[in-house]
């Protein structure tokens, strides 16, 4: 079951949810509005899932970043967000999507025990300016059934934009057996 806004506020106060910094005015009926952090990287190259791709840190001009149509970017949330008791789900804000910026295209699930600044996947379909501290989306919190296990995966403790680590889990060709 999803937590209501008041339950999110209570869980932050009790320490069951981490949202740091927390601002009561950004609590919604069933979520919390997260903001864009101060770092954005443009990801380029034919091999984005391993060696061969490149990341370039953008420099804000007049306090804002220009994201170019069709380019792929990694940013991060301003807030550290997570819980050892609840599962988090992070999505983009519909009003941002209507401006032509897709946020969090694939990885919206945060496991129990993962508390960090989330890496944000950003894909503009037209040129758009974004600002550090701008509200980009919502995070919701869900109760788990059963005993929660602490997340020990690749991305659970990052506080800066983290590139894909998928290549670390792909077996070498010599390790792949033919399927019969």
TrEMBL record:
One GO MF term attached to the UniProt entry: dCTP deaminase activity
Keyword Transmembrane: no
GO process terms (BP): dUTP biosynthetic process; nucleobase-containing small molecule interconversion
SUPFAM superfamilies per the UniProt record, alphabetical: dUTPase-like
One Pfam family of this chain: DCD
Entry annotated with the keyword Transmembrane: no
UniProt entry keywords in alphabetical sequence: Nucleotide metabolism
Name this protein carries in UniProt: Deoxycytidine deaminase
